[in-house]
Design brief:
single chain, about 750 residues, mainly alpha, five-stranded mixed sheet, two-stranded antiparallel ribbon, 27 helices, about 50% helix
Length: about 750
């Protein structure tokens, strides 16, 4: 700690030749948190894994990021991350871990990039603390251990930041172009979310670059134009291609990438808009809340313990749908109530906010004495950059109509940067000043420890009282002792400062390990003792990852006929709508299927599953306790259904058609054969018309249809026509009777056959 206030020397030769030995354990920690046991996740997020399986089969599927091998519909995101995942799967084989690996490496890379960015200006100790804080921010490894996009997105934006900082130091226009072009690449990962850092880029370049205003405007205008060109390059190619020569753009209402970018993946994220409609023949468009419902319904890992009581199941679901500590926080997946203190609310704070009070004190210290007109030091300029990243993103998450907890990884870089830079700055002020600035360090330690006690308090039953009391007591004691020993320059004070930082990072470190300890959820990743549920609430009654997800749902394809209250889902306590989830109806607090469902209140996976099913290629042939099928969709399929469809296929392109990706993904992963998700991700994309379906049937492209009644959306007329013009296949021919069939969300449906001449 006594060296924390030292500046990085300008000479580059020594820094290039010397390896920072303190950085090695930090990188090893990041590697452990991001990589350890990713091989136990066989399927990752099955929606995206199915796409990788499809993209491996042809360049056409690869370029468009087709969800299915038949090129019927794309996934709901641009393709860059999935191109990388597909290349990884091509090199290492098609495994769950091979599609996760790029994101895990990106998580480690982000730690290294942040170290490099902070070290140069704020000093080596600042770089170390920033890197460690990034590695231990719970949501970072939670997301990086999945095949979701966000870890790669953050790495790309940090790489763009490194290019921007180099552009300012070297005053070379080429690096400016490279930085903004990299944001364009990030746009092709997760669309408008990449643009959240633009305020920081513009502000920093204007303030930090020592060139004329005329050049600044010209350079930024040109760089922005390049960024926009890179951003829309893939979209323009896709939207310019005839619709009959490419897959439908999944989750859009007009088969357009640009509409997807600025609607579903853009403004709707802020507004939570539920009233968008497509063309005249279409039903109301898929809303973000309906997507949430679909993702929730997909959030099951494997069979719940058959001995679990109905009360336990009801309690488990109720807990998962509440914020920690009880009470509905007016946000599915516990994203809280919009407002200025949303990031401190339960459900979000344990993912990202552990160090926020310390960051606030650090910002005060770093900007102390700054004059509006300057001149600004290098530290102040870069602090302004991180502040311009932090504030807009924090404001977005404070007011957004809908988002998932794992999106909060966007806040991790600026929080970690301020934690590292602030630790050095506050320590220097503590040692060198006797005015109000010397109180910032003890104040930051005290308030941060208090917040951490608040964050942990709902988890007493799972983590015990000791860690909570320990953090609180040590935080108070160390803050008080540091306050008493101000300006005493001796080794004891240095050790006290170091101990305080260890205390503040201890529980974030434990939280960051929870996806390893308790099992993660690849569909809705989050950290905490309930990490396998992906719901961000306090721990459920499930004792392991095999009981995570929505406990008590009837296994798919099972003919046991168990429709007792044990299999009914109860609403979260305190819910104003009786616990109703979008797309369903409430009946005495029990979850009911949408209209048209053939079951009675049970939420099931189509087709069921069989323990005898075998995975082709690199996937394990048997379910094992050491393997997690936590892809959010049932990774196992109904082998009896698959055998029936395979045997009776007479050359049709599609093995079968079904309502949504939940039903289709497991069969795509298992067989590599085309399965048609008629309504895209959640079943509400207006892709098919009756006339188009008739033409496909007459061409011999599809004849079997598995309908569960879930997520019809714009397909209601198509589904009605199928039921009226088909032959129902007796369930005895295809329905599994295994009592160990896997649980799932899409309904106990019906298999139909249609042949037209």
């Amino acid at each position: 700690m006594k060296h924390m206030n030292s500046e990085v020397k300008e000479e580059r030769t020594s820094t290039k030749k010397r390896i920072d030995l303190f950085l090695v354990p930090i990188v090893l920690i990041a590697a452990f948190l991001n990589l350890f046991k990713i091989w136990t996740d066989e399927y990752a997020n099955a929606y995206y894994t199915a796409a990788v399986k499809s993209m491996l089969q042809s360049f056409h599927n690869f370029f468009y990021a087709s969800f299915d091998p038949g090129g019927y519909v794309t996934i709901d995101k641009p393709p860059v991350v999935f191109w990388i995942q597909t290349i990884s799967a091509k090199i290492f084989g098609f495994h769950g871990w091979s599609v996760i690996l790029p994101q895990a490496l990106a998580g480690i890379g982000s730690v290294l990039l942040l170290y490099v960015l902070i070290k140069r200006t704020f000093g080596v100790w600042a770089g170390r603390f920033a890197a460690l804080a990034m590695a231990l921010t719970p949501i970072v490894p939670a997301v990086s251990r999945t095949n979701n996009i966000d870890s790669m997105l953050v790495f790309t934006l940090l790489l763009a930041t490194w290019m921007l900082f180099r552009a300012v130091r070297t005053v070379k226009f080429g690096w400016v172009l490279a930085a903004f072009a990299m944001i364009g690449v990030a746009f092709n990962m997760k669309m408008l979310q990449a643009y959240m850092v633009l305020p920081a880029f513009y502000v920093f370049y204007v303030v930090a670059t020592k060139i004329t205003w005329k050049k600044k405007i010209a350079f930024l205008t040109t760089a922005t134009a390049l960024m926009l060109a890179v951003s829309v390059s893939w979209a323009v190619v896709v939207d310019s291609t005839s619709a009959d020569k490419r897959p439908y753009m999944g989750s859009s209402q007009t088969n357009s990438v640009l509409e997807l970018a600025f609607g579903y993946n853009g403004i709707n994220r802020l507004t939570g808009n539920t009233s968008v409609t497509g063309n005249s023949h279409k039903q109301p468009a898929q809303t973000e809340q309906q997507t949430a419902s679909s993702e929730t319904k997909q959030n099951s890992n494997s069979s719940a313990d058959s001995s679990q009581s109905s009360n336990q199941r009801k309690s488990s679901f109720s807990q998962k749908m509440q914020a920690p500590g009880g009470g509905n926080q007016n946000g599915m997946f516990n994203t809280g109530n919009p407002g200025p203190f949303r990031l401190f609310q339960k459900g979000l704070s344990d993912q990202i906010s552990w160090l926020l009070p310390f960051v606030i004190f650090s910002i005060v210290g770093l900007f102390a004495g700054v004059k509006f007109k300057g001149p600004y030091t290098a530290k102040q300029k870069e602090s302004l950059f991180w502040l311009a990243w932090l504030l807009p993103v924090a404001v977005f998450f404070s007011i957004a109509g809908f988002f998932h907890q794992y999106y909060l990884i966007m806040l991790a870089p600026p929080i970690a940067a301020f934690a590292g830079a602030g630790a050095v700055a506050l320590w220097s002020m503590y040692k060198q000043h006797n005015d109000w600035k010397s109180w910032l360090l003890p104040g930051g330690i005290l308030t941060t420890a208090a917040l951490q006690v608040y964050i942990m308090s709902p988890y007493v039953s799972s983590i015990g009282v000791a860690p909570i009391a320990g953090v609180g007591a040590l935080g108070v004691i160390l803050a008080l002792v540091l306050a008493i020993r101000k300006q005493r320059k001796n080794s004891l004070t240095n050790y006290l400062g170091a101990a305080a930082m260890v205390v503040l990072l201890a529980m974030p470190a434990y939280w960051a390990m929870t996806p390893i300890i308790y099992g993660g959820n690849s569909m809705l990743p989050s950290a905490g003792p309930d990490s396998s549920s992906g719901m961000g609430g306090p721990p459920s009654t499930a004792t392991n990852s095999k009981q995570s997800g929505f406990n008590g749902m009837q296994p798919p394809g099972s003919s046991s006929g168990n429709s007792s209250s044990n299999n009914q889902m109860q609403p979260p306590s305190g819910s104003s709508n009786g616990g109703q989830m979008p797309g369903g109806s409430s009946n005495n607090g029990q979850m009911q299927p949408p209209s048209g469902s053939s079951n009675s209140g049970q939420m099931q996976m189509p087709g069921g599953s069989s323990n005898n099913s075998q995975m082709p290629n690199s996937f394990s042939s048997k379910s094992s306790s050491s393997k997690r099928k936590s892809g959010g969709m049932n990774a196992e399929v109904n082998q009896k259904l698959l055998n029936y469809l395979t045997k009776n296929n007479t050359g049709e392109k599609y093995l079968f058609a079904t309502t949504d990706s939940t039903s289709a993904a497991p069969y795509i992963i298992k067989t590599g054969k085309p399965v048609m998700a008629m309504g895209g991700f959640s079943g509400s994309d207006p892709i098919l018309t009756v006339s188009k379906l008739k033409a496909m049937i007459k061409k011999g492209e599809v004849k079997y249809f598995y309908l569960s009644g879930m997520g019809k959306g714009g397909q209601s007329d198509v589904i009605t026509w199928i039921k009226e013009n088909s032959k129902e296949i007796p369930s005895s021919k295809w329905q599994s009777t295994s009592s160990s069939a896997q649980q799932g969300p899409s309904g106990n449906g019906t298999l139909y056959e249609i042949t037209l001449k």
